[in-house]
Sequence to fold (188 residues):
Amino acid sequence: MTILHTSRLRLEPLAERHLDGLHEMNRLPEVMRYISGQPETREQTAAAIARAQRCWAAWGTGWWALVERASGRIAGAGCVQYLRKQADLPSALETLQVNPLEIGWRLHPDFWRQGLATEAALRMRDFAFETFDVDELLAVRHPDNEASARVMVRLGMHYRGLESWYGTVVATHALDRRSVSRDTAREP
Ligand SMILES: CC(C)(COP(=O)(O)OP(=O)(O)OC[C@H]1O[C@@H](n2cnc3c(N)ncnc32)[C@H](O)[C@@H]1OP(=O)(O)O)[C@@H](O)C(=O)NCCC(=O)NCCS
Fold:
């Protein structure tokens, strides 16, 4: 499991100790509006941590807690993981390794509009391309999620259309490995 750092954040692979901070975020309707549409219960967030731990064990990647270094607070969560067509995580995780990798993020509203999602995403992007032999990274969002679309644009991703992932239709963006070495995107 890989801990990553940026100037303001420490990215820690999800563990039980993150439950309180993650629940503070995932219980908020404005955070989940474009994800599941439903605030999460504490039990659902605990189950998500358990799923993330399975992914880390199977793939060497998964979800991180985004810990603000100055305060120790959990500012959000981010991921590099294999996309899936179905909504639920299958029991045989290795079956997903034929799919593209996605990069994803969410922040507690106390941490919105400070550049932290982009800062974490740039580090996760580098981790993904350094660790996995893939030519591209995808990111998916609800078609109305404009704030997330702006993070994708800041990363240099291009929009490639509506696609079917997670059992629903999502706006899908892609980042080509070759464009990263040329890009000017830097941590804000
Ligand atoms: C998606 C989400 C993470 C985006 O958060 P965000 O705060 O807008 O994105 P960043 O952290 O990268 O911050 C960038 C914004 O902060 C502004 N900003 C302010 N101070 C800044 C600074 N010091 N450095 C960089 N940007 C700064 C930027 O101008 C930018 O605003 P803009 O998008 O209006 O141009 C957030 O809206 C969220 O958590 N939503 C709920 C969960 C969710 O939908 N997740 C995505 C699922 S696909």
Notes: The two ends are 26 Å apart (CA to CA). The first strand starts at residue 4 and ends at 5. Residues 42-59 form the longest helix (18 residues). The chain has six helices and eight strands.
